[in-house]
Amino acid sequence: MTEVVLFHHAQGLTRGVVAFADALRAAGHVVHTPDLYEGRTFDSIDEGLEFVHGLGVGEVAARGVRSAADFDADVVYAGFSLGVLPAQHLAQSRPGARGALFFHACVPAAEFGTWPAGLALQVHGMDHDPFFADEGDLDAARELVAQLRADDPGADAEVFTYPGSEHLFADSSLAAYEAAASALLTERALAFLARH
Questions:
Q1: What is the model's pTM?
Q2: Which value, to the nearest 10 degrees, does the dihedral of the CA atoms of residues 107, 109, 115, 120 take?
């Protein structure tokens, strides 16, 4: 059993994010899903981003970081897209993390300092997703994994890409959902959690 703190994407804590958390719970893991929007959800990424920009991206990320105080440090931090910001910040800065699961996003590790030695990582996204592949996230993920493997050839660090251009393809409540890719992502995430 692994404890996971899973942060939602720009559209909020949707039914699909909760369903993904439930799939991890069904495998025996404890999953926390902090609601950084206090109950609000949005019908599109653009609407969600408009709300985020009204609050400030930094404030949304800070809400995620503050929420971690409610949980033990010995967890896997996970995030969907925007939720990767607090997940990655915590994974890199809060001692004791077991691992990091980043879905649809990754920022350069230098944004939050250095990557902790031995901290396992999985990054997932579609190979033609304009947010993930075209805005630098995929490059950041590949660079981070390459660095981790250069430092330790046995590092548990992987980037998985899936054919397609959908951004939030693992959220079953959205039109972007891709069942086959989401099932494979879930299978790989569960294998990661079983190791950590």
A1: 0.96
A2: 30
φ/ψ (deg, to 5) at 64? -65, -45
Give the residue among 68, 17, 11, 8 at the shortest CA–CA distance from 186: 17
* Beta strands across the sheet bearing 30-32: 30-32, 3-7, 76-80, 99-103, 120-126, 157-162
Phi-psi region of 191 (alpha: psi -120 to 50; beta: other; left: phi over 0): alpha
Question: Mean pLDDT, to the nearest integer, of 42-64?
Answer: 92
pLDDT tens column, 87-106: 999 999 999 999 999 999 99
Alpha carbons 143 and 138: distance in angstroms, whole number: 9
Tell me which amino acid residue 97 is: A
Residue type, 38: E
